[in-house]
Design a protein that fits this description.
Helices cover 22% and strands 27% of the residues. The chain has 226 residues and is an alpha+beta fold. It folds into two domains: 120 residues, Alpha-Beta Complex (Nucleoside Triphosphate Pyrophosphohydrolase), CATH 3.90.79; 62 residues, Arc Repressor Mutant, subunit A, CATH 1.10.10.10. The strands form two sheets. Strands 1, 2, 3, 4, 5, 6 and 7 form a seven-stranded mixed sheet that branches. Strands 8-9 form a two-stranded antiparallel ribbon. The chain is elongated, with a radius of gyration of 21 Å. The N and C termini lie far apart (46 Å).
Length: 226
């Protein structure tokens, strides 16, 4: 419908269907990965995309995305979830006018295997061609996570309760997609005072024994920049 500067007549209004989609992140094999599921339907052949679907009349967007995560991906109660963006390109869905309220969710590697049969973990930076506009959704989700880990403690959702500074740095490097200077990274994170020594040492393997840390608070914090 062309924009004319006037309000449309009631008979000219066409309503869009509202859906939710979710980009579920984890870290596996030192790669930042997302969960893809097969997309069924006559418009797509051998296609994959992010878990999602239509919002039911009695649901909120949050209710909807949790239902689709559980039913289509086997993921229940992610460690972290936030609303990302509303994707509303007119031609994003070949079936008709559908607006997607997209989310990101994080789960630790220890839960990555407990997903629905047929779902696969794929490197977010090497996505194949996906159904709908899911490549665009994936790109925006990656940008959000890359930026957010630089000024919050969101990376804690990929880590075990106790971890070394090396493991924390590796998590940041995996999410940000770049190598960080070891000395500068440690100086910054220790100065921000969001970590506490666990009073334990990690031993084993070829590496030297390393001090273990934990996050000072069991919630996400906004920092001055890591």
């Amino acid at each position: 419908m062309a924009t004319t500067g006037r309000s449309p007549a009631p008979e000219d209004i066409r309503f869009a269907v509202i859906a939710t989609d979710v980009v579920i992140f984890t870290i596996l094999d030192k790669k930042l990965k997302v969960l893809l599921i097969p997309i069924r339907g006559t418009h797509f052949k051998n296609a994959h995309g992010f878990p999602g679907g239509m919002i039911l009349p009695e649901e909120t967007a949050d209710d909807s995305v949790k239902r689709h995560m559980k039913n289509k991906a086997g993921v229940e109660s992610p460690s972290y979830m936030e609303q990302l963006y509303a994707f509303s390109a007119v031609d994003r869905d070949p079936r008709g006018r559908v607006v997607s309220v997209a989310y990101i969710a994080l789960i630790p590697p220890s839960r990555a295997e407990a997903v629905t049969k047929g779902a696969t973990w794929v490197d977010i930076r090497k996505l194949p061609a996906l159904a709908y506009d899911h490549n665009t959704i994936g790109r925006v989700a990656l940008e959000r996570l890359e930026n957010k880990i630089k000024y919050t403690t969101i990376g804690r959702h990929f880590l075990p309760p106790l971890f070394t500074l090396t493991e924390l740095q590796q998590t940041h490097e995996t999410v940000q997609g770049e190598v960080l200077d070891k000395r500068n990274f440690r100086k910054k994170v220790l100065a921000l005072d969001f970590l506490k020594p666990a009073g334990k040492i990690k031993k084993g393997g070829r590496s030297r024994p390393a001090e273990l840390y934990r996050f000072a608070k069991n919630k996400d914090l906004t920092l001055g920049g890591i």
